[in-house]
Amino acid sequence: MESSFITQEIGSFRKPQYLSGKFHSVEGTEEYAKLCQKATVETLETFDQAGLQNVGVGGEMFRWEMYEHFAKRVSNIEFYGLVRSFDNRYYKKGSVMGELKRTGPFHLQELEYLLKLTQKPLKVPITGAYTMMEWSFNEHYRSRRELAMKFAELIQEEIADLQEAWKRSGRKEKLEIQIDEPAATTHPSEMDIVVDSMNASLDKFKGIEFTLHVCYSKDYRILYDRIPEMGFHGYNLEYANRDSLSVNNKIREGYEDLRHFNSINETLSEKRFIGLGVTDVHIDTIESEELIEKRIEYALGILQDPKLLRINPDCGLRTRSREVGYRKLLNMVEATKAVDKKI
Amino acid sequence: MEVTTFVYGIYPRSDRLRLDYGRFERGLLTSEKLKTIIKEEKDRFYDLTDGIGMVTDPLFNWYDIFRPVALSVEGINLGPLRRYGETNTFYREPIIAGKGGLRFNALSDHEFNENPPFPMFYWGSRNILPIFPSPVAMYNMSFTDRNVNLHEFSENLLEIYAKLADEIGSKNIVIFSPKIGEHEIEEIENIGPKHGIILVSPGGIGKSDFDNTSLKFHSIIVNNIRDLELAANHSRMPGLGILDAHNTRVETKEEIKKHVEAIENTGILKNIVLTHNDYMDFLPRSIADRKVKILQEVN
Asked: Which of these, A71, A124, A181, A210, has the minimum number of CB atoms within 10 Å of its CB?
């Protein structure tokens, strides 16, 4: 029997030590490719054991981090050092010093390897134009809009390369691309730039399923309000982080704003789906199957149609150990199956 | 016009400290060793900022601007990760469930997984200013139990801040507010006449913020030249965030001098504090160091 829900990951998974310990020193070499491939195989095995259906790109083993991977493959971005994200977690924030140009594809090597390796459904995450702009220091372009639109041009080139590779592989199903825009709602007054740069990245493509991933937004409603203008088929969002760990809550606060999504979605002739974040990627607590079931059922109670729900963690699991990441995914899959049986 | 320079808030960790924190988290470095390293790093910061008129502790051991207060004051717990302002930086949202005193002496050694390790401040041989999050900003950026009212929460925190400032031996206290909220200035007035307040708010100030207060601040730092007059009306030493803490472009001494001359020519101010427009943790360390150097040269 076909399951009602697709389970998927969002993107990153913790790299094995043999890869993370050497990543920067071997990046771009043959050894890098071999280590990334080995780690991808192992991560896919972990995903298989957990029972995950869509395996993304095998945990983004070819990428150090979502911003840096992109920025390092673009000319005229300089890195002066690391900047804190939270606690003792840092990322390399680049400074845009001149006209931006792709120095080569960002994710082609990864996708081509995945296509050879597995027949499972894949989803390629690409960091979005607005987030790339927001997370860069701009020392060159006249405005934030101009910089975001420039990044959108580069993303368009990247998607064209990925689509070509997909066609060459002969896969029958649609290529799935997830645009990662964690910064999307950080400046409510700039939502026009967010929407315009997203649409500029995607507009020219047909036959691709596009989803948007946003996380840790202060207010998703400003995103939901713009859904009718955006060319995405679905939205993979973080909810578990804002929800209680208590199983028995009658009101699940983390998922309440799905009502607003639903009110927008009901006005659309072509409905969008939600990739529902059901496990918090910033805590080691393994949410029980029962808790995850309650979360899925609560969301289903609002959206009514199982076809409008996919099930995923809040965000990439790279901040957790591989063991914790696996156990979170396993409970997520088991809980999804349990809900599936009930409907 | 008299110029005073000022470096405040969370300053970026050096690579060495960042890596040592990583070792500590993996159990490869003891808390005692980490404490020593933090002290060494803070001493280095005090050397680096030698000649800067006013400095706060660089807060290398603060995981975010609310964390040590949230952990050391009764009635506050840590909640989920939230985006800090409009940045790619996050903070743990405090959960305010009640009010109370300090759980322990925040200026003494203390262990917390969520913010290793205390004390809140270390100053070595340097005269530092204590810096704390504005109680109103903290209240507004927290998840708050309906039974805890803003005024009581704010009054309680200000009392704690005043005590800690006394222990450090500082008459002045830096209150950091990402964005001034309703009643914020009136609440700060409750600190009493004994302490001078240096108000830093990257979000800016407005005339109506001061409608219900007669408090004369020690200093108010603004980020727009046009707000300097308002800051001067309500403080003894208005200040300007002239260095951009959100861009790696390093300002030149000439640019800063030009701004200062323009301000001087208006004849409105007798003195001015020159500083940065937000705390420097949004920059790579090497750039923050260069900006401090520029500030020293202006001095």
From this structure: A210
